[in-house]
Design brief:
This protein is an alpha+beta fold and 292 residues long. It has helices at residues 9-15, 23-43, 47-62, 70-77, 80-88, 199-206, 263-268; strands spanning 126-134, 145-149, 171-175, 181-187, 192-193, 212-213, 216-222, 229-234, 258-260, 275-279, 282-283. The protein binds benzoic acid and fe (iii) ion.
Length: 292
């Protein structure tokens, strides 16, 4: 056993776990200790800076509850959420890519008939979203569960404005039929800020960063026998497309939002004026173990 010195600091702490009987926990903590000690040696914080860091984490904890998870936001803005996702969703070529789930997914939303207009507050520019859910051999997937959610035209999710927006505004669940197709009406998404009234918002400002996410809408697609797909579709023309506050943008997840001015097509899809058509096919990877 060695006493703690600046030189051997990480090893002394790792050696103190000799009796840990959880090998994974030991591996995780050893890695963390090694890298944290290396970071401290590189940064050389003053006592005041270290106290400030502890106070920041304390405020982050105080800001977190069932509805507001400031630690997840911290992980998001530092790119850690996207890195963990990248490591855990390596897919074969051709499969649709994952991105962050975000904090606004809601479980147990009722299933709606395909084609439903999920915009319940009447705000924003109408949009028709459509496409197919396919396997990697281009076969349609029947019975896929498609969960979708997006902000309203003011940039807020329904759950951020309870009592202001109708419940389940711009949020729905659909199930594909034998052709694997999906289609629903919603609104053309707009960019919006992630919650920035807490310590993470202050940190973003101090880093010289803005809190905005480029316009997108969310999909969570599940089907037994396939890898679950957690993803978004992005508007490539959004001003924040190259500076997403949470680094969630991927080239493959951009789609064209095509304005439709033809009255015949508008009528065919039940619109009375211009709408935006966005088409995107998702390709699900086969589950590694034969089940999702
Ligand atoms: C979202 O897209 O809903 C989101 C993702 C990460 C942090 C905050 C919001
Ligand atoms: Fe979002």
């Amino acid at each position: 056993m060695s006493y703690f010195t600046e030189e051997n600091s990480a090893q002394v702490v790792i050696d103190a776990m000799a009796n840990c009987d959880n090998p994974r926990l030991k591996e995780v903590l050893s890695g963390l200790v090694r890298h944290m000690h290396a970071a401290v040696k590189e940064i050389k914080p003053t006592q005041e800076e270290w106290t400030e860091a502890i106070l920041f984490l304390t405020k982050t904890g105080h800001m977190s509850d069932d509805w507001r998870q400031e630690f997840i936001l911290l992980s998001d803005v530092l790119g850690v959420s996207m890195l963990v996702d990248a490591i855990n969703s390596r897919r074969p070529s051709g499969a649709s890519e994952n991105t962050v789930l975000g904090p606004f997914h809601v479980a147990d939303v009722p299933v709606s008939p395909m084609g439903t207009n999920i915009c319940l507050d009447g705000k924003g520019e109408p949009m028709l979203a459509q496409g197919r859910i396919l396997d990697l051999d281009e076969n349609p997937i029947e019975g896929a569960k498609i969960e979708v959610w997006q902000t309203n035209d003011d940039g807020f999710y329904d759950v951020q404005q309870k009592g202001i927006q109708p419940e389940f505004n711009l949020r729905a669940v659909f199930r594909t039929g034998a052709d694997g197709r999906y289609w629903f009406k919603a609104v053309k998404p707009t960019s919006y800020p992630i919650p920035d009234d807490g310590p993470v918002g202050q940190l973003l400002a101090q880093m010289g960063r803005h809190p905005y996410r480029p316009a997108h809408f969310h999909y969570l697609i599940t089907k037994d026998g396939f890898e679950t797909l957690t993803t978004h579709i992005f508007d490539p023309d959004d001003p924040y497309i190259t500076s997403d506050a949470v680094f969630g943008v991927k080239e493959s997840l951009m789609a064209d939002f095509v304005p439709v001015d033809d009255p015949e097509r508008q009528k065919e899809h039940g619109f009375k004026a211009r709408y935006f058509d966005v088409e995107y096919d998702f390709r699900l990877a086969y589950a590694q173990n034969g089940a999702a």
